[in-house]
Amino acid sequence: MKDFSFSLKRKAVIATVCSAVFFVGVAVGYIPKLHRCYEMTFLSNTFAATVLLCGAVRMAFFGKDIPHFLYLCAATLLAVVVGICVSFAPVATLCSPSVMLHLVNPVIMFAFYMSMCDARVVKNRVAFTALILPCAYYLFMIVFGRITGEYIYPYFDPNRFTPTLLVVFGIVAGCVTYVVSRLLMALSRRVHNKRLKSQELASEEE
Known about the structure:
The chain is 73% helix and 0% strand. It has helices at residues 8-30, 40-62, 68-88, 90-94, 99-116, 132-148, 163-205.
């Protein structure tokens, strides 16, 4: 579905720049520790960079944008990463070399989504698509823990919790992720509604 808020050409250029920034950040952050590429920080930043690059390529060469839900999934995923990192590892998030991946890139993705992606063109049920990747990763962390007896993140050791608690945690995490997704959509709609009103007022004054 096309996004008419900005010209596709302008959006393609900005998406390309953002994608390059993301890929460079991922390379700098993870080349020294490729054995940790299963971390959510790596996966979320790589996913967002890939979405932006695919969007830029499709807009530049085919004159069409990629589906809105892909941008929403990327923005939601990075927003969740920020929330988790700030809540459980604030020092490592804000005062480390990886601050680019944990904070700067998510902010860039948020700004891109707000300014370039008009959520008015999609229905509310699209927010459910943002649950797919976080839920899949949650299951991966549990399976990883059960098989290896270890954990990916020290603040979530699945071997310490009963199956019932893991289900409860999963439901809570899913609800929070859905709320974040809906909030992003609501903010996007508000931004673009204000932009439309400003354009209409400017036209009337002319």
